[in-house]
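Bug #77: duplicate submission created two jobs. Keeping one. Sequence:
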Amino acid sequence: MIEITRRETVATKARIAAYILALVMGFACTSLLIWASGASVSEGFSALFEGAFGSEEAMLQSLVAATPLIFTGLATVIAYRAEIWSIGQEGQMFAGAMSGYFASLYLGGAPMLVAVPVIIAAAMIGGALLGMLCGWLKSRFAVNEIISTVMLNYVIVYFLSYLLAGGPWTAEGTTSYHQTALLADNFRLPLIVTDVKLHIGFVLALLATLLCWAILKYTPFGFEIRALGANPTALRFKGVNVARTILIVMAVSGALSALAGVSEIFGVNYRLKGDVLTGLGFTGIIVGMIGGLNPLGALIAALLFGALENGSLYMSVLSDIPPALVPAMQGILLLFFLSASVIVRYRVRIRRASHV
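Kept job's structure:
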């Protein structure tokens, strides 16, 4: 008889071992795909490593790719620790980018020291409001947050499509590209390393990680988040306004997701385009889960996925691997990591059936 029980706690060593095994298994499966395509397995993985860690420039580019994933991963951690199963990181990220861009339209020639903080604040407000809307629907009308967040993802993305596909934000002569005009220099996030566009968004991501960790571990609000996830009924009897806590949690999660949109649009691409943001919110959910719903774990997972993202680009350029295999390989690795994060939380026992 096979018995599956949930573990109360998961040892850090066991979690690390599971993720290492997932990485090995993922690379084993992807190597079969590369071999089946007729390309060189060794050449492909060599290009992957070179693109992720082969030089100082490659490592810095990996940090750039990891920055938005840190924010969306943290957004996942905050919501899921409260047992709020938000799938809205994608839409909240878009809402943040759109709100930041909307603010930039009215800043004119404001100096960078004024414009950038205003844009970041506007973006966080936009993401927070969208998150709060889902939280209000949940607390006031018992609308399942999975449904509301997924539906609002589509609403936001299609609204952006309207604005960019010949709408008021479309750059003149670029209707087919669905993009805005280039942002002025005073709206762009200051760069730490100019050549690779490593911007202050990465520093903000590190600070956000430490802040989320400290909040969850040491503050009364962090206790409310953990208690809401463990036993909302007991939290309510303790005198805590659960509806208010849900609204704040969703606002914080939305604001963190919004920072991912700001980092990509105002730190890397310098124009608002939907395709450069697509998927970062959903990947952030996996990053948060792989990190064990711990801010520090999410940081490590985001750095790993940033390296894989950057390395896969090099692999598609420097090797004979068909471009279509790159997203397939990323999907396989994501699947193994997600499976490991689930499996490690359960214990499997085989018991002999008793005979009377």
